[in-house]
Amino acid sequence: MKIIFATRNENKVREVNQILGERIQLLSLQSINSTEEIPETQLTIKGNALQKAQYIHDNYGVDCFAEDSGLEVDALDGAPGVHTAYYAGPERDADANMQKTLNGLAGKTNRDAQFRTVVALILKGKAYTFEGIARGTIAMQKMGEQGFGYDPIFVPDGETRSFAQMSAQEKNAISHRSKAIQQLKAFFDDYEDLG
Ligand code: ITT
Fold this sequence. Notes:
Blueprint: E1 2-5, H1 10-20, E2 25-27, H2 45-60, E3 64-73, H3 94-104, E4 112-123, E5 126-138, E6 154-156, H4 168-174, H5 176-190
Parallel strand pairs: 1-2, 1-3
Antiparallel strand pairs: 3-4, 4-5, 5-6
Helix pairs in contact: 1-5, 4-5
């Protein structure tokens, strides 16, 4: 089957493609000539995932899914959370975002955190959501070059390496995104009425 993945983040596309495998072919927003910014104005990660998918469905009349992800740090009361992409400013600079997170944890002993992904699917006019969480800790400093975003400072539970020190396969085996996308994949597997 083919379905639109409503994202402009190529890193997400790469990871989701690897997790979904060959049976499900992702179509880009370019394929429906969507180049505008998609609104993300909700107060929750789930709200933003639904807003992105609903926007594309409403404006282009296609089935699609979107995902919104965020880093939630316990000692920062769940920040950056829904503000993860632009935590240090509208430039959405990953280094500045990580530095702000590290600065916020200076002197704190509790460095526990989690990544949360919510996938929102609109299929034949109905909305479905799937959530994945990866628990871990925030490293003392950046470690590694793989992955994207906050990967260099996130050490998943049971590991000493950050996500950015892992291969794509290793991250995909345990990541928040993978847990949410596996549920989407299972949903598609069970959904008999696909065109
Ligand atoms: P969309 O077009 O899908 O909205 P985006 O990059 O704007 O793409 P989000 O709104 O979901 O994505 O912002 C999430 C931010 O969280 C993203 O910019 C990254 O900095 C960070 N992030 C998301 N997933 C991550 C991951 O697996 N590892 C590290 N950082 C991640």
